[in-house]
Amino acid sequence: MNGVQLAGQPILVLQEGATRTKGRDAQKNSIEAARTVADAVRTTLGPMGMDKMLVDSLGDVTITNDGATILDEMQIEHPAAKMMVEVAKTQDESVGDGTTTAVVLAGELLKEADSLLGQQIHPTVITKGFRTAKNKAIEILNDMASNVSEKDKALLKNIANTAMTGKSAEKASDLLAEICVNAVTKVIENGEIDVDDIKIEKKQGGSINDTQLVEGIVLDKEVVHPGMPKRVENAKIALLDAAIEIKDLEGDAKINIDSPEKFQAFLDEQEKMLRGMVEKIVKTGANVVLCQKGIDDIAQHYLAKNGVMAARRVKKSDMEKLAKATGGKIVSNINELSKNDLGYAGLVEERKIAGDEMIFVERCKDPKAITILIRGGSEHVVDEVERAVEDAVKGVAAALELGKFVPGGGATEVELARRLREYAESFKGREQLAVTAFANAMEIIPKSLAENAGHDPIDKLALLRAEHDKGNLNAGLNVFTGKVEDMTKCGVIEPLKIKLQAIKSSAEVAEMILRIDDVIAAGKSESKGGQQPPSPPEY
Ligand code: ADP
Ligand code: MG
After folding, report:
1. Any residues with CB less than 8 A from the CB of 88 and at least 6 apart, and which?
2. Which of 29, 167, 502, 507 would staple 102 via disulfide (CB 3.0–4.6 Å)?
3. 218 lines ligand 1 (CB under 6 A)
């Protein structure tokens, strides 16, 4: 019943059709829903994790191992489950990798919490213990981390490789790792990295091994006029945010044309204006024009006559990258274009890639924006390589941002668990239980890595704990050999930032879900047209 009884008279507080669950039931329900989400992605964790095939309502298929992508495509309804999806999104947006880890950790924290709730420990005690443990975990992580700088190419390549393992990109991961590291180190500007300066362009066809780093920008565009050169060396590039067209007469303006002569005069005038615009551009010394807006046919003709290559309707985001890559300035008034605004590229060339024209603006001088052109045999491959490259690029950027990395393969989590259990001893009673529970939850990562690779999780965890007790804090599970090894030696390392974020966001969502003890859901409203399938047409 959705109301309270007052002097025998029921008072309805909630709308009809609304449902309400309270107390332990509500808790159990939310925890269950959140854990279901975690379980769904757990089997994809790590290099040997399985892929998922997702089919959307239109029948489009995505095959992926990427936690964020999976959760994004699954149409999740339950509010607590949605909160888990948010964790993946936050993780993805802030660091770009570690999404599965964050969700799996949150699921395990909730599992541990559920068992404490079963022992009549109040949720506030649990959340307090979790928060204490989280802060300690952050401290331990910072303490464990080692330094990495942009000069440590080998370390950075390992970081890129670790981020990519498990995705189908793995077959060419050495080449891709190299490309990602070079890309990130190229766009560092005053110690800052904006991964948006790395344009990822993909073109189906060829093989993953044809993927390349272009020191400049690749545009999915063609040269606008057949009479223009398709190849310009030592290109001086005008970047225009203005149409090379005559604006349509606006409003009520009228021209009276009452004779063929007048019409001809009108056309001549237009042509003269367009030729004037082209002359202004040519006078600056530009031999390439990249225009965000349109270019009139007549203007195209004159540009071609002057040997200028041009492309029109270039995307705004590409224009900005072009400016960064070529050192040019985007000009929005042709009259103001000057020699100093031109950008430079050693070569601008239109090439046919897998049957489509693309314009390569390359060999730029110290470009601050560059392109990774991804190739692969099928759409699925290209898409998965793109996700892998994005993870690797963001991974390398994250590592350089804090200048720190930690060992992967579960090493970090086993060490965290060990030190947190030690730390728990400084507390008494229930709080100690909560901190210990947090510590134990960390071990879900090595356990899942082992399980997903077909190794015995209990055995491997015991071996890992023994190594860490001996002080080998880099001991992790090499899932390919099934052996416990020094992860820094086998090159399985990850940015500290990813681990920090995964711990923070998983602890936060677990806390949020634990605080819920009352779920009030409105009844499905009838009037929501969008929810109803459209009625069939009448014949
Ligand atoms: P996430 O979405 O969390 O990044 P991944 O599927 O990418 O999930 O898996 C990341 C985990 O895989 C990390 O814990 C990382 O240390 C581990 N890992 C990556 N490469 C290896 C490897 N060669 N051996 C063992 N573990 C690895
Ligand atoms: Mg990953």
Report:
1. 41, 67, 68, 71, 72, 99, 100, 102, 103
2. 502
3. no
Q: How many CB atoms lie within 10 A of CB 207?
A: 12
Q: Residue 100 is part of a domain; what is its CATH number? A: 1.10.560.10
Kindly give the number of the ligand 1 atom that is closest to the alpha carbon of 101. Answer: 3
Residue entry with tokens 């966001």: 505
Active site residues: 66, 99-100, 391
Task: Tell me, yes or no, whether 528 lies in a domain.
Answer: no
pLDDT in tens, the chain (539 residues): 455 565 667 666 667 777 777 777 888 888 988 998 898 889 889 888 776 776 766 777 777 766 677 777 777 778 888 888 888 888 888 888 888 999 999 999 999 999 999 999 999 999 999 999 999 999 999 999 999 999 999 999 999 999 888 666 666 778 999 999 999 999 988 888 888 899 999 999 888 899 999 999 999 999 999 999 999 999 999 999 999 998 765 556 667 778 888 888 888 888 899 999 999 999 999 999 999 999 999 999 999 999 999 999 999 999 999 999 999 999 999 999 999 999 999 999 999 988 889 999 999 998 999 999 999 888 888 988 998 899 899 999 999 999 999 999 999 999 999 999 999 999 999 999 999 999 999 999 999 999 999 999 999 999 999 999 999 999 999 998 999 999 999 999 999 999 999 999 999 999 999 988 777 766 665 544 444 444 555 45
Residue 294, domain CATH: 3.50.7.10
DSSP class per residue in 144-201: H-EE--TT-HHHHHHHHHHHHTTSGGGGGHHHHHHHHHHHHHHT-BTTB--GGGEEEE
Task: Give the type of residue at 58.
Answer: L
Residues 200 and 118 in one domain: no
C-beta 441 within 6 A of ligand 1: no
**Mutational test site, ligand 1, from 43, 85, 165, 501, max ligand atoms within 8 Å of CB:** 165
* Residues pairing with 199 in the sheet: 371
Domain interval for residue 512:
22-147+406-517
Q: Which atom of ligand 1 is nearest to the CA of 161?
A: 20
Instruction: Classify residue 246: in a domain, yes or no.
Output: yes
Distance (Å) from CA 504 to ligand 2 centroid: 17
Asked if 273 and 348 sit in the same domain, the reply is yes
Q: What is the pTM of this model?
A: 0.83
